[in-house]
Structure formats: structure tokens, C-alpha cells
């Protein structure tokens, strides 16, 4: 890895260096991270997984993602919203996920808040994408200094405050910035990364909800 935060593969192509930290990162970096998402269930899943990641390495959550999907019934928030104490105990005994009671309860709470939000506004995606930062809030060139020094942003602070006001939990500004990166609301592939321009093209073509 050079000082820009990039690494070069055998073919001479450059990528964000974290892509090579674990095999599971290869597909995630190239085909998911930064790709814009408008599906409500997929967005609820991302919110949950980012919440479970708090205080942990993302690779731990990524490796357990399929287990999480099975345990939470595909992250269908309308189903998760119905969970009670029996489901909490079931999830606490599930070895394939992160068995943190507070985070499990948070996922259930947030499912209920998601149902309320959809009932009120019609779409979780539409509500979330309204917090997309404007061009004036984004750096013209994403570099290593920006990427490491800004785990939060003004937009992620606004999003965090708005969700907390609605009763959501485990949605702090840092977690929400990670969500914004994961759902394509921002493109933080480093300048020079093979994926950056492709992801930006997808963002340009993406029809905001």
C-alpha cells in the first residue's frame, strides 16, 4: 500500500488497499460498497448490520451476513417488527450471529420504527435518500487523508439526529456515515481506485426514490 491508500494487483490495476485485507472484501469492495440502493429491505439490512458492527471489525459482520439473514428472516422489517421475547432468546442462542442483546433489541426496535416511517412517508428509501449530501458538501477528490479523517460528516450527523428523534437506536453519526458509504449515498472509493469511476457512473444513472 502506498501513501494514497491504494494497492496494485498483478495486472497493474489500483484499488482501495482495504480490498485485500480479507478474501470476503474483494466482492464487497468491487460490487457492493458504494453502489446506490433503493430497496427498503436491503436498506434496513444495512442499517442493522452497521449497528451490529459498532465496536467491531466490519469483516466480522460480513462473514456472518448470511447467518444474520437467516436468523432475521431476510431482514423483512415487517416480520422483525413482530418479534418478542421468545425471538430475542432465539437470536441470543444463535451461534452464527453477534449475540449482543442490546443490538438484537435495537434491530427489532428499528424494524418497528421502519414500519412507522414507511406508513408515514411511503418509503424508507425515499426518506433516507433525502439526506444525500449536496455536491458542495463532498470533496472534489477523495484522498486518503479525507477518508481516514472523516468517519462522520455533516450529512451523517443530520441523518443520525433525525433517526434518533424518531426513536431509532444504534444510529450514531459514525454508523450512519458507514451506512451512507455502503448504500451509495457517497462514493468513497479513493481517487485512482479502479472502481471509483464505475461507481460514480452508477450513481449518476441512479434514479433517486
From TrEMBL:
Which GO terms label this protein's molecular function in UniProt?
A: DNA-3-methyladenine glycosylase activity; metal ion binding
Per the UniProt entry, what are the Gene Ontology biological process annotations, in alphabetical order? base-excision repair
Q: Which domain of life is it from?
A: Bacteria
Q: Which residues bind Zn(2+)?
A: 16, 29, 189, 193
Record InterPro entries: Adenine_glyco, DNA-3mA_glycosylase, DNA_glycosylase
**Which Pfam families does the protein's record reference?**
Adenine_glyco
Record keywords: Metal-binding, Zinc
Q: What is this protein called?
A: DNA-3-methyladenine glycosylase I
State the species of origin.
Pseudomonas syringae pv. avii
What taxonomic lineage is listed for the species of origin?
Bacteria, Pseudomonadati, Pseudomonadota, Gammaproteobacteria, Pseudomonadales
Amino acid at each position: 500500500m502506498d501513501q494514497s491508500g491504494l494497492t496494485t494487483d498483478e495486472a497493474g490495476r489500483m484499488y482501495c488497499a482495504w480490498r485485500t485485507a480479507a478474501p470476503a472484501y474483494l466482492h464487497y469492495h468491487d460490487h457492493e460498497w458504494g453502489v446506490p440502493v433503493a430497496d427498503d429491505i436491503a436498506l434496513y439490512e444495512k442499517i442493522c448490520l452497521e449497528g451490529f458492527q459498532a465496536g467491531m471489525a466490519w469483516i466480522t459482520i460480513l462473514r456472518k451476513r448470511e447467518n444474520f439473514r437467516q436468523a432475521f428472516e431476510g431482514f423483512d422489517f415487517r416480520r422483525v417488527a413482530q418479534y418478542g421475547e421468545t425471538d430475542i432468546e432465539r437470536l441470543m442462542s444463535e451461534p452464527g450471529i453477534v449475540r449482543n442483546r442490546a443490538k438484537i433489541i435495537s434491530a427489532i426496535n428499528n424494524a418497528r420504527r421502519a414500519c412507522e416511517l414507511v406508513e408515514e412517508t411511503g418509503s424508507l428509501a425515499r426518506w433516507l435518500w433525502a439526506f444525500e449530501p449536496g455536491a458542495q458538501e463532498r470533496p472534489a477528490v477523495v484522498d486518503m487523508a479525507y477518508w481516514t479523517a472523516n468517519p462522520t460528516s455533516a450529512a451523517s450527523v443530520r441523518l443520525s439526529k433525525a433517526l434518533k428523534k424518531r426513536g431509532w437506536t444504534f444510529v450514531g453519526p459514525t454508523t450512519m456515515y458507514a451506512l451512507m458509504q455502503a448504500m451509495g449515498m457517497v462514493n468513497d472509493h479513493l481517487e485512482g481506485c479502479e472502481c471509483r469511476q464505475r461507481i460514480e457512473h452508477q450513481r449518476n444513472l441512479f434514479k433517486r426514490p
